[in-house]
């Protein structure tokens, strides 16, 4: 019989690893986790299913400001959060993040640590519950455990990628050990790969509504292809052939395909048509209305006045924007870019003069010294990162379409991985092995964007650029820049670096203070 001590594993280790509750400008209340005891141990099938689904629900933090996605995107060449006069200084967090001046005391890194460990340790707890229940059939149990092991592997993948050496806590860990020692990064990486491979045979190969927003066999293989592409960065040993083989499993399986319309993958109704053959392989499902903590990009990126354009329920925050250098990397004929000043043509970016819903009456910025005077014009050029970036400077992130009348949380499901990435992973793995014909897969992506074919003479720099244009603001750019040895390059408002220190973030100070066995990453 499962012991009370064992049942407390999640809450006990959680207390040691998640040193403090986190807060942001939304003044969230800290989440309270209850102990699993014999009195509240899930016993019914519905309770078991709820427990299993809760580990997926924890992923909802991804779309919020001030945590994992934010620190990755703003630190890349894709995005910035400028200091706009009296707005968005936030203690300098985002200025330092963009310039690669990471500080362990900056709160967003601790938020990311907390959220990722919350998911990993919650998975441990629910795995332990399911292993010791008779409330579901053996077949159902095997499927749930395979999903949870894959999901836990994903949480640990993000942890090792972001922070390097991290404590690897599994269901067999001592629940009384509140100061776990960090495991070397390469060992955590090997655990992740091993878990994905071990879980794969018991995962469903179905692609319809029953597996939507869950990890099926194909999503597991797609995620593995991404992780294996990064093996050389993490372990020093390249695994290009294995990355290609994982991608081939998905491609040859024929369960997914590219959507005809790129933006169908990111629209507010991108959960429609769940009958198989879709491009989004694994998503975080969001449903509006939601409280803060959902997918808040509409708030995070739009100017205050754009509330009127989209009839938004709440005034936006006028923060996130893209960089001109990245915006200009798109050809004007690229259907993913959008048209300057044309709100009728959807694009990854919203740029140019902005209008009221009639499409004719200009919106008013209200700051006369901004470009264009009082009228609101999203300029691709960002005049400064601080202290007086224009309030309308920077093209805004429109990849995830804004629904008319949207609340502060959007209902667009966020794609963790798409079939398009599988094709690009296949192409990159072939290219790195000096195999011919890889451009065929790149051209499938380019052609959908309205661009002409390229050939196998493309450079690594061009491959990186192709990935950037396709996967803008999907959370993979930092990994790509590091893998292509471009992370230390200079870009808008960020100087070149001569050290690899900044390829991982610092261990957050609250975690060091709470756990004497943790060591700060070199250079911090």
How are helices and strands ordered from N to C?
HHHHEHHHHHHHEHHEHEEEEEHHHHH
Which class of secondary structure composition applies to the elements?
Answer: mainly alpha
What integer is the average pLDDT? 90
CATH topology of the largest domain: Serine Threonine Protein Phosphatase 5, Tetratricopeptide repeat
Q: Strand share of the residues?
A: under 5%
Q: Which sequence of strands runs across the widest sheet?
A: 1-3
Described by strand count, sense and barrel closure, the largest sheet is: 2 strands, antiparallel
Structure description:
The structure is a single chain. With about 525 residues, this protein is mainly α. Helix content is about 40%, strand content about 5%. The chain has three domains: about 1-180 and about 495-524, Serine Threonine Protein Phosphatase 5, Tetratricopeptide repeat; about 205-285 and about 420-490, Tetratricopeptide repeat domain (Serine Threonine Protein Phosphatase 5, Tetratricopeptide repeat), CATH 1.25.40.10; about 290-410, no CATH class. The chain is built from 19 helices and eight strands. The strands form four sheets. Strands 1-3 form a two-stranded antiparallel sheet. The longest helix has 26 residues, at about 140-165. It starts with a helix and ends in a 10-residue tail after the last helix. The model is unreliable at about 1-15 and about 20-35 (pLDDT under 50). Its main location: membrane. This is RagB/SusD family nutrient uptake outer membrane protein.
């Amino acid at each position: 019989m499962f012991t009370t001590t064992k049942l407390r594993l999640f809450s006990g280790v959680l207390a040691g690893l998640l040193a403090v509750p986190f807060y942001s400008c939304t003044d969230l209340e800290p989440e309270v986790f209850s102990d699993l005891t014999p009195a509240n141990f899930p016993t019914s099938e519905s309770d078991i299913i709820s427990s299993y689904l809760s580990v997926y629900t924890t992923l909802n933090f991804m779309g919020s400001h001030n945590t994992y996605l934010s620190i990755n995107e703003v630190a890349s060449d894709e995005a910035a959060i400028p200091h706009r006069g009296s707005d968005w200084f936030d203690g300098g967090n985002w200025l330092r993040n963009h310039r690669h001046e990471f500080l362990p005391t900056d709160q967003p890194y601790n938020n990311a640590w907390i959220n990722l460990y919350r998911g990993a340790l919650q998975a441990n707890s629910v795995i332990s519950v399911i292993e010791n229940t008779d409330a579901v059939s053996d077949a159902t149990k095997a499927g749930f455990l395979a999903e949870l092991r894959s999901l836990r592997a994903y949480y640990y993948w993000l942890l090792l990628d972001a922070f390097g050496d991290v404590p690897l806590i599994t269901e067999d860990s001592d629940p009384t050990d509140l100061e776990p020692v960090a495991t070397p990064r390469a060992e955590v990486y090997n655990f992740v790969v091993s878990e994905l491979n071990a879980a794969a045979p018991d995962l469903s190969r179905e692609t319809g509504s029953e597996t939507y927003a869950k990890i099926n066999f194909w999503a597991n293989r797609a995620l593995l292809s991404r992780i294996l592409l990064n093996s050389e960065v993490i372990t020093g040993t390249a695994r290009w052939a294995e990355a290609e083989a994982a991608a081939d499993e998905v491609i040859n399986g024929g369960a997914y395909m590219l959507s005809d319309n790129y933006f169908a993958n990111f629209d507010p109704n991108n959960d429609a048509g769940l009958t198989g053959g879709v491009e989004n392989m694994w998503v975080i499902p969001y449903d509006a209305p939601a409280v803060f903590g959902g997918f808040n990009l509409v708030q995070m990126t739009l100017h205050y006045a754009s509330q009127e354009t989209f009839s938004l329920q709440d005034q936006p925050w006028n923060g996130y924007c893209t960089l001109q250098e990245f915006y200009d990397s798109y050809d004007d004929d690229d259907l993913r870019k959008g048209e300057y000043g044309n709100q009728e043509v959807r694009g990854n970016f919203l740029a140019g003069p902005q209008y009221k819903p009639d499409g004719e009456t200009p919106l008013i910025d209200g700051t006369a010294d901004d470009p264009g005077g009082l009228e609101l014009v999203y300029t691709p050029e960002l005049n400064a990162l601080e202290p007086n970036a224009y309030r309308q400077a920077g093209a805004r992130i429109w990849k995830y379409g804004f629904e008319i009348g949207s609340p502060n949380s959007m209902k667009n499901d966020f794609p963790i991985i798409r079939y398009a990435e599988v094709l690009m992973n296949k192409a990159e793995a072939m290219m790195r092995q000096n195999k011919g014909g890889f451009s065929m897969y790149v051209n499938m992506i380019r052609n959908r964007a309205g661009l002409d074919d390229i050939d196998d003479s493309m450079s690594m720099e061009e491959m990186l650029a192709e990935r950037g244009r396709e996967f803008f603001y999907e959370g993979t750019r930092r990994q790509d820049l590091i893998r292509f040895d471009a992370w230390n390059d200079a870009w808008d408002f960020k100087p070149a670096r001569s050290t690899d220190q900044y390829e991982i973030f610092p261990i957050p100070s609250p975690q060091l203070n709470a756990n004497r066995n943790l060591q700060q990453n070199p250079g911090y």
